[in-house]
Amino acid sequence: MTLKLGTEIPGTSAEGNITTLWVPTIADIKRPTMAELEAGTDISNYVMLGGWTFEPSQDTVSDQRENSTQDFGAPGRKSAGDSSIEVIDNTNTEHAEQNKAVTLMAEGNSGFIVRRRGMATDAPLAAGQKLTVVSVKCGEKKVLNPDANTMIRSTIPLFAQAPGWESETAEIASAAASHA
Fold first, then answer.
1. 160 Cβ neighbours under 8 A, 6+ residues apart
2. d(C-alpha 102, C-alpha 30), whole Å
């Protein structure tokens, strides 16, 4: 079916429709279980708007044939790129007790960033939902200089590690599948 010019395509606002979790362990990043996700911490309220940087890329394997005047290619190695997360940082403030993102993602800590887009943050996680899951090791927190009218915040560099990542291709396992 071909869409006609001017056909309205609905869209979903990103505002309030992104959930970010820090999860300590996931056995299969393609099929995280509800138990694994519920053992994590919802850090959505700490993440600044536009503060998630994850830009995977893929190299091209050159395929040049002697008998052709065209160059071909094949999918090559993948890279997570320069990944980071910008968060509220309540270090030394009257809200120091509410600083889970900075505490959980201290330098050297390993875990999983799990993101769900397209549903209200307060909508419950459920089997079948698509997720981005990235296995990371945290780098040294970078304190950001404040701008006018901003919150105190920091950026935490994230380094992809094995078993890698799934970019909205992971799916929450059903209860039956997680017991198998």
1. 80, 83, 134, 135, 136
2. 26
Residue-wise pLDDT tens for the chain (180 aa)?
676 777 888 888 888 999 999 999 999 999 999 999 999 999 999 999 999 999 999 999 999 999 999 999 999 999 988 999 999 999 999 999 999 999 999 999 999 999 999 999 999 999 999 999 999 999 999 999 998 999 999 999 999 999 999 999 999 998 765 555
Query: What gap in Å lies between CA 40 and CA 133, rounded to an integer?
Result: 13
Give CA–CA dist 82/167, Å, rounded. 15
**Cis peptide before 10, with omega less than 30 degrees from 0?**
no
Amino acid in the structure at residue 96: A
Q: In angstroms, rounded to a whole number, what is the distance separating the alpha carbons of residues 122 and 159?
A: 28
Q: Let me know: does 57 contact 79? Beta carbons within 8 Å.
A: yes
pTM for the predicted model, two decimal places: 0.88
